[in-house]
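Sequence in, structure out.
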Amino acid sequence: MKPLKPDQLRRMTLPELQKELDNLRMELYRTRVQKTVAQLKNTDSLRQIKRNIARVLTIINEKRRATGV
C-alpha cells in the first residue's frame, strides 16, 4: 500500500471520499486478521493504512468546514 496524495484526495467528492474511507477500513480489518493468524509479511502496511485513513478523514473535515455542513 502506498500513501495517498492529499491533492488527489482533494479532487474527490464527499461520497467518493466516504467510499474510499470504507475501503480503507475494510483493508485495515483484513490486514489485522492476517497479522493475528501470522500470515502478514509486511507489518508496515498497518501503519500505512492508518495514515491513509487519517488523510482521508482530514480532507473530509476540510470539505465539510468549507461547505458549512
